[in-house]
Write a structure and sequence with these properties.
single chain, alpha/beta, eight-stranded mixed β-sheet, 12 helices, 8 strands
Length: 264
């Protein structure tokens, strides 16, 4: 079921819009309180991923969120929302802590991809992403992943192994960017618009394939038109799915997670 008549390329542009709410915008509106935690205890604190403890109505959560900036200064601070390996190691550190204290994990996905710099590769970018995928697949606590904007490449997948995967109506989720797809297949990045149409990266497409569990309708004019309304929608879904998943015993939770990804 198509949520409206926008094309895939329209969705790409909306997902990338600099006025679109960031993870921290949602965190500040959804949770009653949020305490940010820092560092991977190996290298440094990478601010492209924000981690912390939060609660809604007395229910505690661990939050892992990819964070973009809105201006040059913020983007430099957040590395343009492209995580280094230390960001993924930080996120895994706090996800393991969530498992220990039996807190559900909420992840907010919004990145054009993991940072491709030489330093990131030298520090084990591929290994950090792969380890997150492996560890998340067997974490003994519920995981709810929410794609709020641009979810591209392993940079998005590294925090996307959820028992429930939700996408905002105008977000995208794919193995790489349309520009990357066009460059690899057609040797021409200018064909990104055509690539977006064949990649099936919209929320409607992914829901129809059974890859995501629900499409969250955005307010009229998009999420940036009414952040509070969008936040309330996400909040209700977090509470709904957290309650549903918490009723499963751990073995059943892990079996359902295993079967979910075996089907993909």
């Amino acid at each position: 079921m198509k949520s409206n008549n926008l094309t895939a390329w329209d969705r790409v542009n909306l997902a990338r819009d600099s006025s679109r709410p960031t993870a921290l915008d949602y965190i500040n509106n959804i949770f009653d309180f949020f305490i940010e935690l820092h560092g991977d205890r190996c290298f440094k604190d990478d601010k492209s991923i924000v981690c912390g403890l939060a609660s809604i109505n007395g229910k505690n959560f661990t939050v892992v969120a990819e964070q973009k900036g809105r201006n040059t200064k913020e983007n430099i601070e957040r590395n343009f929302g492209m995580p280094n390996p230390e960001a993924y190691r930080k996120s895994l550190r706090f996800m393991k802590q969530a498992e220990k204290f039996k807190r559900p994990i909420i992840t907010f996905i919004d990145t054009k991809g993991a940072y491709p710099g030489i330093g990131a590769e030298e520090r084990g970018q591929g290994e950090a992403i792969a380890k997150n995928l492996m560890e998340m697949s067997s974490l003994k606590t519920p995981i709810i992943a929410i794609v709020i904007g641009e979810g591209s490449s392993g940079g998005a997948l590294a925090i996307g192994v959820g028992d429930k995967i939700l996408m905002l109506e105008n977000s995208i989720y794919s193995v790489l960017s349309p520009e990357g797809y066009a460059s690899i297949l057609w040797k021409d990045s200018s064909k990104a618009k055509e690539a977006a149409e064949v990649m099936k990266l919209t929320a409607d497409d992914l829901y129809s394939f059974g890859i995501i569990d629900e499409v969250l309708k955005e307010p009229k004019g998009g999420a940036n038109a009414n952040v509070k309304e969008m936040s309330n929608t996400i909040k209700q879904k977090i509470l709904e799915y957290a309650d549903e998943l918490s009723k499963l015993d751990i073995d059943e939770l892990l079996n359902k997670r295993y079967e979910k990804y075996r089907k993909m």
